[in-house]
Amino acid sequence: MRTTAGLQRVDVIYRRVDDDFIDPLMFRPDSMLGVAGIFNAYRAGNVVLANAPGTGVADDKALYYYVPAIIRYYLGEEPILNNVETYLLDDAKQRDHVLKNLDKLVVKAVGESGGYGMLIGPHSTKQEQAEFAEQIKANPRGYIAQPTLSLSTAPCFINEQMDSRHIDLRPYILYGDTVTIVPGGLTRVALKKGSLVVNSSQGGGSKDTWVLDT
User: Fold this and answer.
1) Please, which residues have CB within 8 angstroms of residue 22's CB and are 6 or more apart in sequence?
2) pLDDT by residue (tens digit) across 3-34?
3) Percent of the chain as helix, strand, coil, to the nearest 5
4) Helix (H, G, I), strand (E, B) or coil at 97
5) Domains in the chain and their CATH numbers?
6) Residue 183: exposed, middle, or buried by beta-carbon count in 10 A (0-12, 13-18, 19+)?
7) What is the distance between the alpha carbons of residues 141 and 139, in angstroms, rounded to a whole number?
């Protein structure tokens, strides 16, 4: 890394680009993104990529459907918490059910994040449902569907008065020699009244998370 004091060795890198753009010498020679030569340094063990190539598979929302089976296979035990019911739309029977109930379900694009590529059925129009139906038919593997969940609410001070807004909690887990669940997490809040979308890119915000010693 170039600094005002000269070159400084970097040990760990957290990347914010897709796999294809990590290193133009290795993947996309037409790209100006990434760091030329970084992949050879990574393979030689000279630098660590905190989110290594291939870890993006965990961002595929369709993987969520298989989490209970993954737990049984790798840990040999039953999940402690049940999954939210999830429909894989490349299955004809599940797809047919979803298309008939778009007004009741949440549909998510498997490769999107930040609240993009979503249809929240109960809050959508007939036109939006029709458009999503066509997108699903054109690319069923690209979407999953789930029931609309009733998120918790918390009091918020908005426009000089107290009001309730939907929230969710994103916990964090540190994995090393031991697994540690961090006491706390990120509480995200949908600042738009009645909205279930808490993502900051969609106008959401965050709230302090208090952990009480009981």
Assistant:
1) 15, 34, 35, 38, 39, 49, 53
2) 999 999 889 988 888 888 889 998 998 888 88
3) 30, 25, 45
4) helix
5) 1-55 (3.40.50.11290), 60-149 (3.30.1490.270), 152-202 (no CATH)
6) exposed
7) 6
Burial of 205 from C-beta contacts in 10 A (0-12 / 13-18 / 19+) = middle
Extended strands (E) in 67-172: 87-88, 105-109, 118-120, 143-147, 152-158, 161-170
Structure tokens at 87: 């429909």
User: What whole-number distance in Å separates Cα of residue 87 and Cα of residue 17?
Assistant: 29
Q: At a CB cut-off of 8 Å and minimum separation 6, what does 61 contact?
A: 108, 109, 110, 111, 144
How do strand 48-49 and strand 12-13 relate by DSSP bridges? parallel
Amino acid identity of residue 210, one-letter, is: W
What's 206's DSSP letter? E
pTM recorded for the entire structure: 0.72
DSSP 71: H
Instruction: Determine if residue 108 is left, alpha or beta; phi over 0 gives left, psi from -120 to 50 gives alpha, anything else beta.
Output: beta
Inter-axis angle of helices 126-138 and 92-100, nearest 10: 170
| pLDDT above 70: residue 131 | yes
Beta bridge partners of 207: 187
Residue pair 190/166 in contact by the 8 Å Cβ criterion: yes
Q: Are 124 and 103 within 8 A, CB to CB?
A: yes
